[in-house]
Amino acid sequence: MNDLGLLKHADAIVAALGSVSGLDVVDVGCGEGANARILAANGANVTGVDPFMEPADWKTEGSGRYRLLKSPADALPLDDHSADLVIFVFSLHHVPNEKLAKALAEARRVLKPTGRLYVAEPLAEGPNHYVSAPYHDETAVRAAARSALDAFAAPHFTDHRHLAYADRRPYNNFDDYAKRMIANRRFNGYSEEAVLAPEVRRRFDEVFASGKPFDQPVRIDLFSQPNP
Hints:
Number of helices: 8
Strand order of the largest sheet: 1-8-9-7-6-2-3-5-4
Distance between the termini: 27 Å
Helix content: 25-40%
CATH architecture: 3-Layer(aba) Sandwich
Shape: globular
CATH superfamily: Vaccinia Virus protein VP39
Radius of gyration: 18 Å
Number of strands: 9
Structural class: alpha/beta
Largest sheet: 9 strands, mixed
Strand content: 25-35%
CATH class: Alpha Beta
CATH topology: Rossmann fold
């Protein structure tokens, strides 16, 4: 597996794919559009899709543009063969298990014959997983996403590459960590009280005192050359 090192999510996309300038990109599970904006600034035309966000018309960003559409991953409101690239960044494991096959089928449907599918998923390991496990253990859903890629993506492409990177998350203290995690509740199913539990604080303090960086290991599955 090719290790790209310490990178932010959008930088990892460029490191794995090369230039995105001029590409029509679909960002599935885009959240508030952070990656969409960065890719647009690098010259891409990005459509961000998320079931929790309100739609927004095309906006210019750098040499590209982006827009946001409100839609689930298994019903993309896009034309067949309209995208050069479909990306899932920390979003595939949020798709309900019963909808994973359809979500990946939708990704294949909107890809052009030369299109590529890029999936970045956090691994259930490392300091962040250790600290968050008491209130947000995603081991099972991440494993389901992994199995879905093997079953519903890999057989439909002739080229499948594996890459890795680490997403560094610096925290000043537990209060800083808790504030960020609580802000993420809108996309997850945990409570503020669960984040502030004594066991979570104990685990955070243990890692923080050790001096270990809060790096989140990430696996990339990059599919290209779709089968006819």
